[in-house]
Amino acid sequence: MIEERAYHTSVLLEASIEGLNIKPNGIYVDVTYGGGGHSKAILNNLQGGHLIAFDQDSDAEANLVNNERFTFVNNNFKYLKNFLRYHKFNSVDGILADLGISSYQIDNVKRGFTIRDDSALLDMRMDKTQSLTAEYILNNYDETIIYRILKNYGELKEAKMIANRICNYRKTGTIKTVLDIKNSMGNFHKVNDAKFLAKIFQALRIEVNNELESLQEFLLQAKEMLKPSGRLVVISYHSLEDRLVKNFMRYGAFEESTENFSLYTNNTSCFKAITKKAIQPDDNEIFANNRSRSAKLRICEKL
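Given the sequence above, the corresponding structure tokens read:
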């Protein structure tokens, strides 16, 4: 078993567990098990209840708890409804999602999520059984598609230039490592800027794992599977995720509400916000775990 602290330090742990408003005999779901920190805290608050945890990364299985009140599903949370029904759960009292990459995934260079090791291969798959990797995208996608990925998912102002340089670079070789991405940028002044590279990696990771579409599918199913007064607790780490979560909790849709909202959709929200604004880590948590700095926690309750 990999120690939870080594695998991943749970972000906003107390606030997220408090936000679930756990009933000792309730049914709860942690759709991002990782190192098991949130799940273990949920189980500590259960007496007669049950916890179902999801994680599409098979490496998370090394951290599983041995508890008769615990069920693990090695699959993507976009299949929430199917697997809950398969395990005979027709509704649940609370659902928690921590959308961040685990420290283990970042630190393990073989997984291809890190920008800190020039020799790291460009994988970025959460589910290691799938075929699509970041390397395949960079070496095979059309320049216009790479541009859209960088612009839409990385929100990079330089997306057109980056896509062009990548496609020119790959004419003479294969882009396999972090160093290859840097080299493809030539003398561009941001080539060693961590924030610049992180945005490129964010864009590629979202595309590889179909993250935003999966998040939308999960949220729609979460609304359906929650009991009245059930809580939905979501921790996001960048504006694209947080915008989807915020709009869904407020309006029941993924686009921001307008004055004529009802003309465009019948999918109105069935939630009430428990917190008016997103909860963010305090200075002490950020000092102890710098990777928590961009986290935003939103909590809502089904009406």
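The first strand starts at residue 27 and ends at 30. Try to locate this feature in the token string yourself.
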